Amino acid sequence: MSELQRQLSQEILRRRTFAIISHPDAGKTTLTEKLLLYGGAIRLAGSVKARKAQKHAISDWMEIEKQRGISVTSSVLQFDYDGYRVNILDTPGHQDFSEDTYRTLMAADSAVMLIDVAKGVEEQTKKLFHVCKQRGIPIFTFVNKLDRFGKNPFDLMEEIENVLGIRSYPMNWPIGVDGNYTGVYNRKLAQIELFEEDSAHGQRIIPSSQGSVDDPAFAKMIGAETHQALCDDIELLDTAGDAFDIQKVLSGELTPMFFGSAMTNFGVRPFLEEFLELAPSPSPRETEDSVIKPDQEGFSAFVFKIQANMNPAHRDRLAFIRICSGKFTRGMAVHHMQTNKPVKLAQPQQFLAQERTIVEEAYPGDIIGLFDPGIFSIGDTLCESSNLFRFKAFPIFPPEQFSKVQVKDTMKRKQFLKGIEQLAQEGAVQLFRQPDVPGEFFIVGTVGALQFEVLEYRLKNEYGVDILMYGLAYGLARWMQGKDVTSKPIKGVDKNAIVFDKNDLPVALFSNEWALRWAVEQNPDIQFFESPQQL
Ligand code: GDP
After folding, report:
1. How far is ligand 1, taken at its centre, from the CA of residue 204, in Å?
2. 17-46: per-residue pLDDT in tens?
3. Which tens digits make up the pLDDT trace of 289-339?
4. How far, in Å, is the centroid of ligand 1 from the Cα of 31?
5. Record-annotated residues binding GTP (predicted)?
6. Which of 36, 55, 180, 263 to probe ligand 1 with, by most ligand atoms within 8 A of CB?
7. Helix, strand, coil share of the chain (percent; to 5)
8. Which residues line ligand 1 (CB under 6 A)?
9. Ligand 1: residue whose CA is nearest its atom 24
10. Who contacts 32 (Cβ-Cβ below 8 Å, separation ≥6)?
11. How far is the CA of 28 from the centre of ligand 1 (A)?
């Protein structure tokens, strides 16, 4: 084994790259911060929170990006814990929800699904879960806000199975009664861990005491009744619940479940430690015709996000890449497959808790930001010139919001076309056109409202074009396949609801699931697909 290989396997083994998926307000920001606190990357909780102040208009948000020179909406946070090198991919939620959120999941090796104990499985969690499930990555569940009243843990397990179709295995179990849990029971070690009352509002790591569930001292501390209830629950879990099966976890069929409170820090450390132990290190990645293993010596990476327009005067952009194999060293020359040109990775950036730093070295699983002179697109491959290949294309995520977009001043039509096509190519929005009106207007599809705002802002600032935008009452797009699909009317689909994507493939737009189902029934000779990749 060469020295490089030895170093590579060591670094790969200790890396954990994951994303936290959740519905807004479940506590993702708080949990992220607590993980940083326990990882020693910040000393007092409260600093990451500031990042969430970005709830203003898009232009303000862009201003913030500029001032800080850092992506506040979606980047990566890195810290070390117990020998592990942890990369947390930030997946924006709220009104910032966009295709970027989905694409970020492409760069993760596992996901932590955060659930509010009172609310259970919510809408955005479902969507994000679906994307993770399709990738087949392991999904860990953290049930949050245990300091408050919420659903019964058994009911939550059932809800996860019914709504998401995944079985769960509680790694630990809350001790106490609803609204007043005091600790967690570790099933593997048959140990109780009781957390001290939080006096610092979760700003600091909280002390805890651990011991065997059979130790009478603990039974006394939590009270005989609570102790008995705990023992009954554990027995039920052991006899009626699933067995722990790491293979099922790794293939995304079983989700290890944890309980805690990101706010009071209750259960955070037990979760972090067990998660790091169970979560996979960087996995092999599919190429167009093979797979690339992380310990392969040749460097490779793909672009999963482009953060544009941090400074409109210079049109500077950051391309975020995920390293898939080999070792990265600053200044190295690699091959960019999509332009078929060499590029020098001269000023790579990495993001720590509070500042960005220049990266000298990085390994598979790590994320770095590259200054992009405008050559990169989502999904692009960087590899060594001695071993050329392309990673498999990113999935196309079905848009859920649609607007009709046209240029305000027809004199600016040329700039408008150039701008909107470039932004679509970059992956900022999906573009559709209606057959009879080439270039007059476009139907723009997105997964979140923020994408429309970004489109409007960027067309104005980068291309000097004002647009008119009208929201359309569609909520679903389906790619169609079948005989005569473009030449005859389609039952249940209005003529205006038939559009064409960038490759001229016919797409039908529907207002809701019901309308789609009706069209499916009425047109047995046509097949409807969620994405063109399924055709
Ligand atoms: P995000 O939208 O998922 O990033 O959620 P935040 O981390 O901003 O949390 C949303 C709200 O829930 C905030 O007011 C938090 O203080 C609160 N919160 C987060 N975690 C907990 C928790 O464990 N317990 C309680 N009671 N509140 C929490």
Report:
1. 16
2. 999 999 989 999 889 888 988 887 765 555
3. 999 999 999 999 999 988 765 555 555 677 889 999 999 988 899 999 999
4. 8
5. 22-29, 90-94, 144-147
6. 263
7. 30, 30, 40
8. 22, 24-30, 52, 93, 144-145, 147-148, 261-263
9. 145
10. 20, 48, 77, 88, 90
11. 7
Task: Please calculate the CA angle 257-273-23 and round it to the nearest 5 degrees.
Answer: 45
Q: How far is the CA of 377 from the centre of ligand 1 (A)?
A: 35
Tokens at 29, concatenated: 């920001």
Residue 104 CA, chain-centre distance (Å), reads 5
| Average pLDDT score over the chain | 86
Q: What is residue 223's DSSP assignment?
A: -
Nearest to 467 by CA among 404, 425, 418: 404
For residues 159 and 135, what is the distance between their CA atoms, to the nearest angstrom? Answer: 22
pLDDT band at 350 (very low <50, low <70, confident <90, very high): low
**Among 25, 96, 147, residue to substitute to test ligand 1 (most atoms within 8 Å of Cβ):** 25
Q: What is the pTM of this model?
A: 0.88
CA distance 246 to 258: 16
List Cβ neighbours of 443 (8 Å cut-off, separation of 6 or more). 402, 403, 404, 405, 431, 432, 433, 434, 472, 499, 509
- Strands in 110-116's sheet, in edge-to-edge order, are 76-81, 84-89, 15-22, 110-116, 139-144, 254-259, 167-170
DSSP 285-347: EEBSSSEE-TT-SS-EEEEEEEEEEEETTTTEEEEEEEEEES-EETT-EEEETTTTEEEE--S
**Whose CA is closest to 350, among 365, 370, 324?**
370
| Cα 279 from Cα 112, distance rounded (Å) | 10
Residue 27 backbone class (left: φ over 0; alpha: ψ -120 to 50; beta: rest): left
- ipTM given for this complex: 0.99
Binding site annotation covers 144? Answer: yes
Q: How far is the CA of 157 from the centre of ligand 1 (A)?
A: 21
CB contact set of 431 (below 8 Å; sequence gap of 6+)? 420, 421, 424, 442, 443, 444, 445, 501, 502
Paired with 85 in beta bridges are 15, 80
How far is CA 487 from its chain centroid?
A: 40
Ligand 1 atom nearest to CA at 24: 2
